[in-house]
Amino acid sequence: MAEYVPSTSDWVREQVELYERTNGAEGNTLRDTGLPVIIVTNMGNKSGAVRKTPLMRVKDGDNFVLIGSKGGAPQHPVWVHNLRADPDVEIRDLAEVQKMRVREVADPAERARLWAIGVEAYPPYADYQQRTDRKIPVFVAEPV
Ligand code: F42
User: The CATH number of 10-143 is which of 3.40.50.720, 2.30.110.10, 3.90.1150.10, 3.30.420.10?
Assistant: First the structure.
């Protein structure tokens, strides 16, 4: 079994640790915003390590919308490369962990619909897209 290698970002690593240790009772929002967060377990596409990535919780029915914003940074978050290489993930939403499969959204109409849902859930996504000419990738995670 591949081993979990925590994020190099302290606040992220600590959030994952708290969220998982409390089975979702704590560490389940983005700092003091009160906005809900999920944890996406994905496979490192180079290291083969297990990676755990907190993302904003954006729901579309039974699906989650995963938005590779990274605060509007010029480069994609590297978990985007992991999902593109291996679409099989686990998503923890509070105490529930479920196997899901992700697909990157290419269709413009679908992307526009899901982007709007994302911005509704977390308005700063709109600012992040303004901040960079990188097209922020959108994935849908569907229950397997
Ligand atoms: N990031 C978002 O993009 N969107 C969100 O909605 C979001 C919400 C959020 C809420 C709470 C929270 O704590 C963090 C949140 N983040 C959100 C930040 C998110 O969790 C990630 O930290 C951020 O998106 C950056 O992702 P990253 O995968 O680039 O992380 C870096 C810091 C990282 O962990 N790098 C590792 C390292 O060792 O430097 C490597 C990670 C990795 O997966 N490596 C791959 C491997 O093979 O293991 C290779 C990847 C490659 O191809 O280079």
Answer: 2.30.110.10
